[in-house]
Amino acid sequence: MLAPAPEAAAAVRVVTTTEDLASIVREVGGDRVTVEAIASGRQDPHFVEPKPSFILKLNKAELLVIVGRELENAWLPPLITQSRNARIQPGNPGYLDASQNVKILDLPTGAITRAMGDVHPQGNPHYWLDPGNGRRIAQTVQARLAQLAPADAEYFAQRTADFVKRVTEAEGRWKAALAPYKGLKVVTYHRSWSNFADGFGLDVIGYVEPKPGIPPSPAHTLALIQEMKAQNVKIILVEPYFDLKTPTAIARDTGAKVVVLPPSVGGAPGATDYLRLFDYDIKLLTDAIRESAAR
Ligand SMILES: [Zn+2]
Q1: Which of 80, 111, 170, 189 is the right S-S partner for 208, CB 3.0 to 4.6 Å?
Q2: Prediction pTM value
Q3: How far is CA 294 from CA 184, 257, 260, 290, in A?
Q4: Which domain holds residue 24?
Q5: How many whole angstroms from 87 Cα to the centroid of ligand 1?
Q6: Over the stretch 279-293, which tens digit does the pLDDT of each residue have?
């Protein structure tokens, strides 16, 4: 057995805000990184209750990777300040916004305002639900890890190339599974599925939330029901952390089926990493579509 090279640095300590990013960092970093996520895959990543343990994690981190696009704005900035860790402050090499090279949808036009509660003022932050963006995130992470641990740069490059290849192969399989339903009209609770719908050919015609981050209102729900009836929509996708009361009422009125679909790694027992998240969601979704068509 080969002894470790004397110049080999210790593994880079990485903290990510979400499990999705943690999974991609693990793919790129292998045994040259340790990775911990702050939010669990079962939580709404917009609203994570801060805990002292998060500050401890951040205090020791050499690299913090965030989703960005203001996804974590409600809870992360004070934690970064309280970590008293200069390495991970915005602008330093230990702070990485994973959104810098990805495809962003739902970019606002005109004046950007949070007055109406919209939690997506910088475009849709749920961009990881597009395999193309998964590849781009991996490449962004690779570049930064190579900068922080230059001795392992080749190792990170090889692992990234392997991940990119596996995502591309799986993407072909996922697209084939959803191809028969191209253009299928669906409703989603939150605007989490824009990139997923764009990549896999679904048509999201409406949302249970009147605006991202705003709870359902009777007037909006009524209008949505009418729209679903007019367009014959039979699928309502709901993230696991939202109340099922309104989606269930809408389903009862429209004959649609509610599908609780996790948008993040760890959001369901089978969705244990980035690739398995898509495997899990696409299986659940195609089963639900077939079931709703059979009724
Ligand atoms: Zn959102």
Answers
A1: 189
A2: 0.95
A3: 15, 12, 19, 6
A4: 12-167
A5: 28
A6: 999 999 999 999 987
